[in-house]
Amino acid sequence: MSDPITLDLVTPEKRVCQDPYTMIVLPGAEGEVGILSQHQPIILTLKAGDIRLYQGTTVTKTIPITGGFAEFSGEVCRVLADGLIGNGE
After folding, report:
1. What is the residue range of 57's domain?
2. Nearest to 68 by CA among 52, 84, 55
3. CA distance linking residue 84 with residue 27, whole number of Å
4. Residues of 4-25 as b/e, b for ≥16 C-beta within 10 angstroms?
5. Other CB atoms within 10 Å distance of the CB of residue 63
6. What is the pLDDT of residues 34-70, one digit of tens each?
7. In angstroms, rounded to a whole number, what is the distance separating the alpha carbons of residues 30 and 38?
């Protein structure tokens, strides 16, 4: 099993999440991008869609966003979302 990655998800209104996950799947503007531990550093533009958060092979949380940007380096994935769709839970 991979080392955990911390998702740091913020919107203009609040910090939504700052928790560890095994894998994070982001709705990239060019298609979905899966991030695992030790992934190459990357900066992405995000489209509206779901961020899927995994523990092992199970999706434990889905957070719908309206778009934004993501940056991954080290073991932290930072997402600056324009907003959440619905309550974002």
Report:
1. 5-81
2. 84
3. 13
4. ebebebebeeeebbeeebbbbb
5. 21
6. 999 888 999 999 999 999 999 999 999 999 999 999 9
7. 22
d(CA 89, CA 63): 6
Provide the domain count of the chain. 1
Long-range contacts of 48-51 (CB under 8 A, 24+ apart): 48/85, 51/7, 51/9, 51/24, 51/25, 51/26, 51/27, 51/79
Residue 88 domain-assigned (yes or no): no
Tell me the pTM: 0.91
- Per-residue confidence (pLDDT) for residue 24, from 0 to 100: 96
Look at residue 87 and tell me if it is in a domain: no
CB 23 within 8 A of CB 36: yes
Give the separation between CA 52 and CA 71, rounded to whole angstroms.
16
Residue 67 has which token pair? 């778009």
